[in-house]
Write a structure and sequence with these properties.
By secondary structure, the chain is mainly alpha-helical. It has 2 domains: 8-156, no CATH class; 159-373, no CATH class. It has 15 helices and no strands. The chain has helices at 4-7, 17-34, 46-49, 62-83, 89-111, 121-137, 146-158, 163-178, 193-196, 206-231, 238-260, 272-287, 293-313, 333-361, 364-371. Helix 4 packs across helix 6 (121-137) and helix 8 packs parallel to helix 11 (238-260). The longest helix is centred in the last third of the chain and has 29 residues, at 333-361. The chain is globular.
Length: 373
């Protein structure tokens, strides 16, 4: 007979499984960004086909170099973490770097057939460098290394155990990235109007805009806060974890406004409607902090679904200015970066709904096995 403690012990996920899943997902993101706008295919002339041996361009900007390096750092990191489950660290770093380089060559090769994109050997070099940097950083986060051990300790101390919880934490990290969307309101994920040319259902009025911004910001903040609460151990001050995650979202939005979009009013996104939504949501999160996890998940699901509906039928903000980088003629690395973040912003609440729905419908024993010690 197994003891009660043994029956509650969660099954171990295969080593490196989460890293493999994330690496594949990030490869899809890179392909999406590299192959936009997916139209206008042509047969390139001979000189373009020899881009790997072509002379370097006369002008190389630091912004392009940094974006190219940064884009492949996560890929190299995730690949190395996945391969470290089966190979030594040096071999995993080598394989991850090689795959990152091959990915870059493949993307640039396909770009030859797109007149709107430019196949560049500089991009291959900088992408490969980014993959190498990410792969070299991966061993530092191993559970036996100093930094990795400290992070693993914090994760074990604050958050519940299991692969299901790991997926939730990854979703929260992706949510932080969505706040880099240069044209979205704070916490305004799930806006499909521009992608699918959805009709405008309501005429803009100041009062209606304030109400819509408050509802969208408040419902999304409520959902994220409740997901964080559901992932936090009951022995820890769970409200602190939610406050830290939400404060990080505000910080990322402010950082994007200051550095990426270079807005003339860096806090223009902190509108009266957004502030109202944040305050009301904070009260609701506090009130729901001690209810059962299933209720938290159900409320989070309803919050995300309602926010998607409101942001897609509510009035558009006629006073929102586009960042100058989005008005640049021709394809730019900022446009590619913006496309990645926009896609993540549109998709994220749907992924969150699937995730919290999965948690909510699990049997109590199954939830305990995945979300407790």
């Amino acid at each position: 007979m197994k003891s009660e403690k043994e029956t509650r012990r969660p099954l171990q996920a295969p080593r490196g499984l989460l890293a493999r899943i994330l690496a594949i997902a990030y490869f899809v993101v890179i392909a999406y960004a590299s192959l936009q706008p997916f139209s206008g295919w042509w047969i390139p002339p001979q000189e373009i086909r020899l881009f790997l041996s072509a002379p370097w361009p006369r002008y190389i900007t630091l912004e392009d170099v940094l974006v190219n390096i940064g884009a492949y750092v996560p890929l190299g990191f995730l690949l190395a973490r996945a391969f470290m489950a089966h190979f030594s660290s040096p071999r995993a770093v080598f394989i991850a770097t090689a795959l990152a380089c091959l990915t870059s060559v493949a993307m640039e090769t396909v770009q030859m057939f797109m007149p709107a994109r430019i196949a560049s050997n500089v991009d291959v070099l900088t992408n490969g460098l980014g993959g190498l940097i990410g792969a070299l950083a991966a061993p530092l986060f191993g559970p036996t290394r100093g930094l990795g051990r400290r992070l693993a300790g914090l994760r074990e101390q604050w958050f519940v155990y299991g692969l299901t919880a790991d997926v939730g934490l990854v979703l929260l990290c992706i949510w932080l990235i969505t706040q880099l969307h240069p044209t979205a309101q704070l916490f305004g994920t799930g806006n499909l109007r521009g992608t699918f040319e959805l009709p405008v259902w309501f005429i803009h009025t100041p009062q209606l805009l304030v109400a819509a911004e408050a509802v969208v910001a408040g419902l999304n903040m409520l959902g994220v806060g409740l997901v964080t609460l559901a992932l936090t151990r009951e022995t820890m001050p769970r409200g602190v974890a939610s406050a830290v995650v939400l404060a990080a979202g505000l910080s990322v939005k402010a950082l994007a406004s200051f550095t990426l979009t270079k807005a003339t009013g860096p806090f223009a996104w902190l509108t009266p409607g957004v502030v109202l939504g944040i305050l009301v949501s904070a009260v609701l999160i506090y009130g729901l902090s001690h209810v059962p996890r299933r209720i938290q998940c159900v409320v989070a699901l309803l919050s995300f679904a309602s926010a998607i509906a409101v942001i897609n039928i509510g009035p558009e903000n006629p006073y929102q200015n586009l960042p100058p980088q989005l008005l640049a003629a021709g394809p730019t690395h900022f446009l590619s970066f913006s496309g990645i973040v926009r896609a993540l912003s549109e998709l994220w609440p749907f992924l969150a709904i699937v995730y919290v729905a999965t948690l909510a419908v699990r049997r109590p024993a199954a939830r305990l096995a995945h979300l407790e010690h």
